[in-house]
Amino acid sequence: LSPALKDMLEKKLDKLEKYELRDATVDVHMAKEGKEFVLKLQLSSPEHNYMAKSSSSDMYKNIDECLAKLVAQVNKK
User: Domain 3-76 has what CATH class?
Assistant: First the structure.
């Protein structure tokens, strides 16, 4: 995990704070499968669990897609 990628991920995850999820934690799983990068984010709080997964050749794209998926799930609740 490069410093730039880690910094971007942390900044994007900070945006979830506005949803005021009590005692929430985020588990980040990254892997490389062939030429594809896989990102899985699991957002857990006492009330709900959310999961998003994205796979592409661009990890930055995966971060954006996973965060959009998590936000959509949180907004449904």
Answer: alpha beta
